[in-house]
Structures are given as C-alpha cells and as structure tokens.
Write a structure and sequence with these properties.
single chain, binds pyridoxal-5'-phosphate, alpha/beta, 39% helix, 396 residues, four-stranded mixed β-sheet, seven-stranded mixed β-sheet
C-alpha cells in the first residue's frame, strides 16, 4: 500500500491513542531505520529502549528464523528448550534463581504484585498493600497502572486498585512513613525511566532495602527499562550492590520480540504453586530464541562495557549542548539510559529531531530521552548530538 493510503487508513481505523509522525517505517539495520519513502532515521528511540543490539542483527534474525522453522508456539503445558535455558541464563545474571516469563513489562509487574501478595497470604500475614513512587511508570494494566505514580494516566480509568500509596521518588523519610504493617511490597524503578530519567542519590536503594527488611515487606525493583545492560551492568541495581526480592525485566530482554520476566528467589517463588498463575504466550519459543541470541551478543561483543563508555561519551557531548543552549538545563542518566532536561516541554524538540532524521522519545514532559542500542558507535552518537544541537538552535 502507498504511504498516503496507509496514513489515511491509520487516521480512520486506528484507535486515536497514538499520534506518530506522518511516515511509515519500512526496514531497519543497526542503529538506522528507513521509511517507505526511503528517508533514513538514526534510531535513538530504539522501540522505546527495546532494540538491544541494533535492528536486524544477523544472529538474532537467524535465531528467530530457526525457531520459527521448528515451531512457533507450544504454551507452557509443555517444556521447550528456550524457556528453560532463558530461566537458567537469567539466574546467572542476577540474585534470583526462579523466573516466570511474560509477553510484556506490564505483565511482569502484574506477576510481581501477585507473588508479593501471595507470599504473605501463605504466611498468614495480612499484607496486601503497595508503596510506589510519584512519577513512576509500571505499565498500563490495572495492577501496574495503579502503582504507576502518574495521576494523568489514571484519569477516567478509575477506580484504581485500593491500598496503594505514592511517595516522592528518592525520599526515604516519606517512604518510611508510608510503609505499614499492611504493606506487601515497595515497588521502585532503580532509575526513573518514563518519569524523566532520574538517578537516585547513591545510598538510596540501600536505604530502601534496609527499610523493607526492618518493616518486613518485600522489595520489587522494576527494571523493565533499566535492565539487560542498559546502564552498563545487567541490572541497574547492581551498581549499588543491593538486591530486591522480586525483579521485573522486559524491553531489551526480547531483543525486539515481546518478552518479559518476573525473577525472584526460591523461597518466594514457592508460593506459585501449580496452576496459580500462567500465561498462554509468555516465554514464547521465538521470543526466547531472540532473547538468548541477544544475550549472547551482549556478552560476545562486550556490550556492557561498551554501554558504559558510549553512555559517558553521549552525556559529555550533550553536556556541551547544555553549556551552549540556555533552554537545555541538565543531562541525566547512567550508561545508555540518557535524558536531556529542557526548561520547557520537549515535544517540539523531539518533532524537530524527527524531521531532521533522529528518532528519540519524550519522558517526564520536559526530557528528551535517548535509549540507543547498546552497540551504538561514536560516529552515530556525534551524528545524533549534531541533530539535537540544530533542533535546540531553533529554540534559542
Ligand atoms: C515500559 C515499562 C513498563 C511497561 O512495559 P510494557 O511492555 O509496555 O507493558 C513497566 N515498567 C517500566 C519501568 C517500563 O519502562
């Protein structure tokens, strides 16, 4: 179909909750995407931080094709190799020995909330409530939306799940007041993603861990965005040397295919007795094959270290824009999870970048968020920063 026909059909037949710019993507390679008109875009949106090793990495493509040729789906009534191997692999990457696979981040969060409640139910403790952060983002289904600390996303969808308290991010005193004898878990993003790329001060996550231990509730880290190498370690909490009780991952985990994970300890996982929770598609064989290939590439190509050095490069280059443009206030982030904070809504800058051939995202209203693939090159970083520089010129 012609682009113009597709855009017309999109306008009349898609639900209006998305408002993409007027072009249709056609193909991708590495850090680049092309639209149907042949225009090339540098992709620092990465499918919202999903594209871990670039578009169409040959090894990921081969893994997907090979699994598709064997079988596409089996449900979890039967074992398949990819699910088992991925659970083993995740156990080697973090504290948790047990994994439940899902299709998305929101489902991983739902599983985490359900497991936390059931853990206390099994111990005859009346703990069903949750404490989360203002401006947090945990997903769009009712449980995860309820813990999401952005009232505008709740608007018109209420009532939310009861028993949820929100406190300012990185405020340990507020958290201390909010956690009670009814709290099942505190759920926190170790780095606020959608809320505007905020890194808490050193020691905060450790203080949260201690607080949860003192008060007898569980700690959930939502690393859907910050996990799988985004910040230069497999998981962002590993920079701080603290471990949660339950961890969620998704986005880069599937290397472009829909896949999420709820990871926990042996002790906590034991409450998921046979039949207590399930997903028809979760841990689908093709998604698992793409994931295992992606994790292999991250290891073989040393992409955790690469994310650290390239992230530093990106932040330094953006820092120069901060000293040059009055509308640019600050650069935040860790590894390749980076935000450029503006003194005004970031949408116009985002739009100008897209026109000039750079895809990015907006977070927290005033932050231009950059989540490039972990194997992004110095030259691509320089190219992206030059486009942002030109876009900022239009505001000064
Ligand atoms: C994206 C995101 C989610 C939701 O993931 P979906 O796959 O869109 O359901 C949950 N938590 C965090 C931290 C996220 O960034």
């Amino acid at each position: 179909m012609l682009t113009s026909e597709l855009l017309e059909t999109a306008r009349t037949h898609m639900t209006p909750n998305y408002a993409p710019p007027p072009f249709v993507l056609d193909r991708g390679e590495g850090t680049y995407l092309w639209d149907q008109g042949g225009k090339k875009y540098l992709d620092f949106a990465g499918g919202i931080g999903v594209i871990a090793v670039g578009h169409n990495h040959p090894k990921v493509v081969a893994a997907i094709a090979q699994q598709a040729a064997r079988f596409c789906h089996s449900s979890n009534l039967f074992y398949h190799e990819g699910y088992i191997r991925l659970c083993g692999r995740l156990a080697s990457m973090c504290f948790g020995d047990r994994t439940f696979l899902t299709n998305s981040g929101t489902e991983a969060v739902e599983a985490a909330l359900k497991v936390a409640r059931r853990y206390f139910h099994a111990r005859d403790e009346d703990r069903t409530q949750f404490v989360a952060a203002h401006n947090s983002f945990h997903g769009r289904t009712y449980g995860s939306l309820s813990v999401t600390g952005q009232p505008e996303l709740h608007k018109g969808f209420g009532p939310m799940m009861p028993g949820i308290t929100h406190v300012p991010f990185a405020d340990i005193d507020a958290l201390d007041k909010a956690v009670t004898a009814q709290t099942a878990a505190v759920i926190i993003e170790p780095i606020l993603g959608n809320g505007g790329i905020k890194v808490p001060p050193a020691g905060y996550l450790e203080a949260v861990r201690d607080l949860c231990d003192d008060k007898g509730c569980l700690l959930i880290f939502d690393e859907v965005q910050s996990g799988i190498g985004r910040t230069g370690k497999w998981f962002a909490h590993q920079h701080e040397g603290v471990t949660p009780d339950i961890l969620t991952a998704a986005k880069m985990l599937g290397g472009g295919l829909p896949l999420g994970a709820m990871i926990t300890t042996d002790e906590i996982a034991a409450v998921l007795t046979e039949g207590s929770h399930a997903s028809t598609y979760g841990g689908n064989p093709i998604a698992c094959a793409a994931s295992l290939a992606t994790l292999d590439i991250i290891e073989e190509e040393g992409l955790l270290d690469h994310a650290t050095t390239k992230g530093e490069e990106l932040r330094v280059a953006l820092g120069e824009l901060v000293s040059k443009h009055t509308c640019a206030l600050e650069v935040r982030g860790r590894g390749l999870m980076v935000g450029l904070v503006l003194d005004r809504p970031a949408k116009p800058i985002y739009r100008q970048c897209v026109i000039d051939g750079l895809l990015a995202t907006v977070a927290g209203g005033t932050v231009l968020r950059l989540l490039p693939p972990l194997n992004v090159s110095s030259q691509e970083i320089a190219e992206a920063v030059a486009i942002i520089d030109r876009a900022l010129n239009s505001l000064d």
